[in-house]
Amino acid sequence: MEDIEIYTREINIDQLLKWAGITDNGAQIKPLIEDQLIKLNGAIVTERRKKVRPGDIIEIAGIGSWIIITGEA
């Protein structure tokens, strides 16, 4: 499991995946959601604007898993 640092209290999952370089743009999350490949804290993600916060764990089937941590500003 890898860390992803964020510098805000929360971020939308589509923005986070782009920020972390997991997707090239926010639109690429749509097929991942439609195929139910993304989990946030063990629950399947059904919306691309789902809020992610430090301490959350994201899993994408066949790609990897990440824990969200607070970055130092």
UniProtKB/TrEMBL annotation:
<protein>
    <submittedName>
        <fullName>RNA-binding S4 domain-containing protein</fullName>
    </submittedName>
</protein>
<dbReference type="Pfam" id="PF13275">
    <property type="entry name" value="S4_2"/>
</dbReference>
<dbReference type="InterPro" id="IPR036986">
    <property type="entry name" value="S4_RNA-bd_sf"/>
</dbReference>
<dbReference type="GO" id="GO:0003723">
    <property type="term" value="F:RNA binding"/>
</dbReference>
<keyword id="KW-0694">RNA-binding</keyword>
